[in-house]
């Protein structure tokens, strides 16, 4: 389904390939939308696309990834393809992102910052109505630890 959606929005989109360029463009996109730069900690990028006319974004990575946001202890899973319709401080109809809630994975369909001065960011599942709010600071870029 998401591959079909990408194909629909590809015409007229800015499309980038290559690990370094995609990483840079994904961070620039998050900055432009006023989201924290560490919100989408993807690896091994294949492609990043943004159709400004429709607000559709896609990010493709070689394999799915689980990431734990250490400041809040939340585990999040990112599929090989993450898509969303974006506007300032809002991602809607998000696909490819799930959060671990107790023992189950819950799909996240919306991410938004209603009041920038609050320092809070919200994540919601439109189907179930489940929503959680966290400090924006929990999603800043984490410095990679040396092993």
Automatic annotation (TrEMBL):
Pfam families attached to this UniProt entry: DUF538 (PF04398)
Xref: InterPro entries: At5g01610-like, DUF538
Superkingdom as given in the UniProt entry: Eukaryota
Protein name from the UniProt record: DUF538 domain-containing protein
Species assigned in the record: Kalanchoe fedtschenkoi (Lavender scallops)
